[in-house]
Design brief:
Elements (H helix, E strand, L loop, with lengths): L5 H23 L2 H8 L2 H38 L4 H21 L18
Helix pairs in contact: 3-4
Length: 121
């Protein structure tokens, strides 16, 4: 016996309507628009920035891990974490958020080094 769950039904219905919208927008894309989009220099420039900021994000995650190891060692040997590294970690997290928003097209603002490095403290 299968139980009826209105939440599942609503999610399936919303998912199907989203797919229908995507199919309609793809059908409206004609060959001329496609050629124009592929030749758009701003789109290719954005791609180059995506690669650069993707690498920057990867390096920032590595830096986050290194910072956390230093903080652990500070806590282990001195009993407390370094305030400066905590602040740096907070700012680094804000930077990673900026990069993520840019990479996912949620923002058109380029992060550091094209803007100031975020400083919460």
């Amino acid at each position: 016996m299968e139980l009826f769950c209105p939440i599942d039904f609503n999610l399936k219905k919303a998912y199907k309507s989203e797919i229908n919208l995507q199919e309609e927008s793809m059908a409206e894309l004609n060959e001329e628009d496609l050629k124009k989009n592929v030749k758009d220099k701003d789109t290719w420039l954005r791609f180059m920035y995506l690669v650069v900021f993707g690498v920057a994000f990867y390096l920032s995650v590595t830096l986050t891990f290194a910072t956390s190891i230093f903080q652990f060692l500070a806590k282990l040997f001195s009993g407390s974490a370094f305030k400066g590294l905590s602040d740096f970690g907070d700012n680094l997290a804000a930077y990673q958020g900026q990069v993520t928003r840019y990479l996912t097209f949620a923002s058109d603002e380029k992060p550091f080094p094209f803007a100031q490095f975020p400083a919460k403290h």
